[in-house]
Amino acid sequence: FAVCGDELCCVGGGSSVELRSLAQEYGTPLYVYSGDQIVERARMFQNAFADRAHTVCYAVKANSALGILRLLGDQGCGFDIVSGGELARVIAAAGPERAHEWTGRVVFSGVGKTAEEMDSALAAGILQFNVESEAELELLAERAELLQRKARFALRVNPDVFAETHPYISTGLSAHKFGIAIGLARGVYARFREHAWLEATGVSVHIGSQIRQVEPFQAAMERVVALVRELRADGANIRTVDGGGGLGIEYGAEEFSPAAKVCAYANAVRAALGDLDAHLLIEPGRFLVGQAGALVSRVLYTKRNGEKKFVITDAAMNDLIRPALYQAHHEIVPVMQVADAEAETVDVVGPVCESGDFFARDRSLPELEQGDLVALLDAGAYGLSLSSNYNTRLRPAEVLVRSGEAKLIRRRETYEELFAPEMV
Ligand code: LLP
């Protein structure tokens, strides 16, 4: 997103589209994504690991729009899923011809997979289950036998590595619910080695999200590599190592070079892998889609309560919950840039009946008036995918822009659709 002339545009592929015209055509609140940037980010990872066998398995939860899954699948990406619903999305995005090929690049993470979810993933022939407990492995063995389909699995190990991030999205410490303590993993692999319907094909790790240093990724991967060597010595045919996702972006206006970040990340992972001969899987989510998305919203009202000025937008916490949930910072930029606009300190809030429904507090912004459009930046990851219909609000529409061409990839919901599953 960049200012072209006097207004904010979605730029990419040598062209630009004005957010103002998209808001006019599709209404607000509206998520706008740069497909060019998403593709560019995926290629950064693919190029950084070009010298070794690897698959970038996009973490679907970050943004599960079918249009975005299609874009990334077409780039040769695989997918990291955490539910039967996400598997259904991958299959829908692939279409019947490619469904089999694309599900062959799926890894299935998550601490609470159900029997039904395992069954659908086994039927789809996914690449690998990232198993998070012994009890889960027992159920997977049962389902695999029942369906007479071999289940390829990796244990997701908990490496007990500290990575600095928000406490809600840190996962790599033994205090967290995720994975199997790395010290116990070898025993678990050994216990299931002879099982006819299970095949241990990998080891996986994921230490958390929005991690901006690369050292914790290296530390975690070093522990995984050591385990792989032990397992191979035990006779296991370990072929994949999955480093998980979690590489962070910069929210806000700071200078940020995504290419340099991916390079540093790749060097750290590469250093840990050394000469290990294994197919590398990584599961980036936020890094691929976060900065490619903006939530465009219109100012409904402005008002003063005592000392404070409030800017009330038509987007709310149900559309983008990150500020309310994680005190996350999202830059807010007026879509129309007014030269020499006065700055003022405001709270930007939504219409939902919760005091937590804010996008910014005491933020200095150019003066905004009723009817103005604003863009909340870096909203492509965990935006719509974490949205809800709270207050019976219709969720935003979504537009994907590529090379100057804008396509609606999700139309706005209707009230009838919201009530459809309900009975009086
Ligand atoms: N792999 C696994 C197993 C994960 O649990 C996650 C994210 C990812 C990959 C992708 O992580 P990423 O590359 O996107 O950091 N809602 C929070 C983030 C939750 C992350 C959950 N797991 C937020 O808005 O910051």
From TrEMBL:
The modification N6-(pyridoxal phosphate)lysine is found at K61. Pathway: Amino-acid biosynthesis; L-lysine biosynthesis via DAP pathway; L-lysine from DL-2,6-diaminopimelate: step 1/1. Its EC number is 4.1.1.20. GO terms for molecular function: diaminopimelate decarboxylase activity. Residues 36-289 form the Orn/DAP/Arg decarboxylase 2 N-terminal domain. Pyridoxal 5'-phosphate binds at G246, E283, P284, G285, R286, Y382. It catalyses: meso-2,6-diaminopimelate + H(+) = L-lysine + CO2. Substrate binds at R286, R322, Y326, E354, Y382. It is an enzyme of class 4 (lyase). Its cofactor is pyridoxal 5'-phosphate. It comes from the Bacteria. Homodimer. NCBIfam families: lysA. Belongs to the Orn/Lys/Arg decarboxylase class-II family. LysA subfamily. Specifically catalyzes the decarboxylation of meso-diaminopimelate (meso-DAP) to L-lysine. This is Diaminopimelate decarboxylase.
